[in-house]
Amino acid sequence: MRYLRTSFQIIRANLRTYAVLNAFMYGLFLIGMGAALVFPDLNAAQVASQQEDGTADLVAALLGNVWLFSLTIFAVNVLTVAVATILLPSMLVPFAGIVAFMYRAFNFGVTLAPVDETTARLLVPHSLTILIELQAYVLVTLAAYLLGRAWLRPKTVDARNRRQGYVRGLRQVGWVSLPALVLFVVGAVYEAVELIYIVPPLVTG
């Protein structure tokens, strides 16, 4: 908690930006859902893509081990989305990862849209997963914003030049990423438990 206190202080100091990012990302997710309901082919294309790239097969193979499944979900969320999609692009081009994740948030909504009765039932327990994991991504986008701001406007972090601002921005990335990691852990465990123990009765019921 001592380490998270610093993280929360940074978040509170940038509360307006944090609120705007929440509105954008959850809003884009809901817009994606709405688009898939109006145009069901969008959802069908996303589901087919997951089957073709092996995502569906990987999930099926891991359903027998809740902890291995949790670890895999955590690794995918952190490495392929938080790091590869949001943070790394933002380390090369200011704010690039935020734009990249906006597209991802929209696609998440398209993929998870309740296009039929079964999907609508599954969305009830899965809504908690969505809330937790999307919030973790919002925190990572906040970290990307703070890096970009410190890089372009070093005075906001009391830096003498952009190089020093970049370094101090990276420190802020580390602090804000801590609560995001906690949410990623919680979300991964809950999602694994949900898909293994909660979802099957809803599908067969």
From TrEMBL:
Which species expresses this protein natively? Streptomonospora halophila
Signal peptide start-end = none
Q: Which InterPro entries match?
A: SpoIIM-like
The record lists the membrane-crossing segments as 20-39, 59-79, 86-106, 126-152, 173-199
Protein name as it appears in the record: Stage II sporulation protein M
Q: Does the keyword Membrane apply?
A: yes
Q: Which UniProt keywords apply?
A: Membrane, Transmembrane, Transmembrane helix
Superkingdom: Bacteria
